[in-house]
Amino acid sequence: MSAASEEVQKDLDAEFRQILYIIKPYIAHINDHFHLEKYRVWLERLSESSTAEKFERNKYLVELANQIHDNALKPPFTFGPPRGPLPKLRTFQKEELEEWPYISPRRPQHADPSKRQEAKDASPQKKKHSKTKTISRPFQKLGKVDDSRINSDTSSWCDLTESGTSVNLGCGDTDLDEDGKKLSSQHKKEGLKLQEHFMKKYEEESNANSKDSESCSIDSRQFMDTTEEINSSRKPTEEEVEALKLRMKDLLEVKNALRDTHCLTEDRKKTIDNLQIKLKNAEKQNAELKSQLDAQKKKITEMEKLKNKEIYEFKEKFTHLRQKEIEFLKQYHKDEIQEVEKSHSSRISVIQSEIKEKIEAVKKEYEEKIKKLDESSAELLKEKDEEICRQVPLQLHLQNKNNPVVRLRSEIKAKEGEPPDEQNSEQIISLKKCISKLDRVLHKNEKDYVKKIEKLKQELEVRDMTTQVQLRTQRADLIVRNTAAKQEELKNALNSLEGKYKKMMETLQLHALEAKKHDEKLIHELRALLDKHNIVH
Fold it and tell me: Which segments of the protein form a coiled coil according to its record (predicted)?
């Protein structure tokens, strides 16, 4: 940013602060809360504007100052400030811009009083001539001063003696209409440049009032002397006539200025009295407002207590209703289960009867199969017994054969002690051969018999095992079929109950949400009422 742009920004900020300083005393006399709220919102928005919006911001502020001065609210301030950048002000007028002071920064030559005095001393005649041309009387109507123009009157009075371009005041001219029109613009132009010197000037003027009366008499005498000189000199020169005219003009200006100061002091006293009266009224209003605020605070505390009590009661009622709803749901659930059981009990009984019939049929089948297996096992046992019976004579025969063998052995042993004979020895050898053959036959028969018995045992065990396995598989199939059917029925019943319970829970949740929304709406409305009445919550 260049130095020139920085200076421009500083000048714009200075103008903004000066206009705010001018607006401040007028705001105290505005009683409309709506206007005050709009002014506050717009002032906050203008104070937060960016550097690119400062020129337009000052335009808006001057327009707002005009409306505050007139105690009015006009577009664009009837609406809220825009969110984005400030648009150009179309309703703004240049004449109103020139009516307010500090639109352009003060020139440095008027800031220093010593420089102003030097300027006055350097060209006194020109300044007198300009004063005679533009004499305005802004204090002629100070007896009827409005509340919003008191501060501007005091600031304009301060500016009369300070600025080199200010004008002298008068009280007795006839051009009252023009002066009345210039009054508001003159007050706005003069502003509050040197308000801090007001008391000093007032004291100096009060001390100078006595001197002014004497100067008035002296000036009147001088005026009479000049008139006598003019009358006595029958043939004055042109230079003397011009000098006398200039002197008379100066004397008239001094008289008017002195009369204006007298009028100003009287009007100031009146304004001070009016201000004191208004101060007392404002203090009374403040006391009444404080009492009203205390009463409102008490009401707010009572309302908060009532609100808390109502909230507590509402919570208790809500918990009680919630418990009732839970109990009702439990009872409803039980009733539904009972109704479902009743409705499905007939089907269950039918299914159970069918299952019993199937079980009985399966039992009969298995009993028949068991009977057949028993019969087959009995037949096998019979065959076994028959075989055993067959083998019994063989055993007897073998025993019978064994008996002679034993006899022969005993005889052989007895004869072994006797002397051997040739015939006996042959018989013994033949007998031994027979015995060995018989032993072989017996061993073979025994082995065959044992093998057959083992085969029969294995066959019986295998049959028993197969029958048991078949029975177990059939039982498992029946159990699985029955359990699958029951499980399907139970699943269907449970699914239907779950669907009903979910629907009931959804309805209850919807009711709870509707109640919650209604409560939130009530709370929002109550908060809006509190905000509308500016009650802290």
Answer: 241-306, 352-386, 480-507
pLDDT of residue 397: 66
The phi, psi pair for 100, rounded to 5°, reads -95, 145
Tell me, what amino acid is at 134? Answer: T
Residue 3 half-sphere exposure, CB side, CA atoms within 13 Å?
Answer: 0
Long-range pairs for 473-479: beta carbons < 8 A, 24 or more residues apart: 474/362, 474/366, 478/358, 478/359, 478/362
For residue 36, give both structure tokens.
């005050």
Mean pLDDT computed over every residue of the chain: 69
Distance between CA atoms of residues 151 and 390, nearest Å: 154
Does the bond joining 101 to the residue before it have cis omega, within 30 degrees of 0?
no
**What residues contact residue 195 under an 8 Å CB cut-off, 6+ apart?**
154, 155, 158
Contact status, residue 424 vs residue 415, Cβ threshold 8 Å: yes
Residues whose CB falls within 8 Å of the CB of residue 148, separated by 6 or more in sequence, listed in order: 26, 29, 68, 69, 70, 71
Please say if the pLDDT value at position 186 is more than 80. no
CA–CA separation, 510 and 265 (whole Å): 79
DSSP 149: G
Mean pLDDT, residues 414-430: 64
Q: CB under 8 Å to 453, separation ≥6 — which residues?
A: none
> 325 CB contacts (<8 Å, ≥6 apart)?
508
pLDDT grade for 173, boundaries at 50, 70 and 90: very low
Contact 25, 151 (CB under 8 A): yes
pLDDT of residue 112: 44
Model confidence at 265, in pLDDT bands (50, 70, 90)?
low
d(CA 438, CA 405): 9
Higher pLDDT, 188 or 376: 376
> Counting beta carbons within 10 angstroms of the beta carbon of residue 139, is it exposed (0 to 12), middle (13 to 18) or buried (19 or more)?
buried
Q: Which long-range contacts (CB under 8 A, 24 or more apart) does 338-341 make?
A: 340/493, 340/496, 340/497
Q: CA geometry: angle at 397 spanning 451 and 452, to 5°? A: 10
| SS3 state of residue 138 | coil
What the block records as the tokens of 5 is: 């742009």
Question: Higher model confidence: residue 407 or residue 457?
Answer: 457
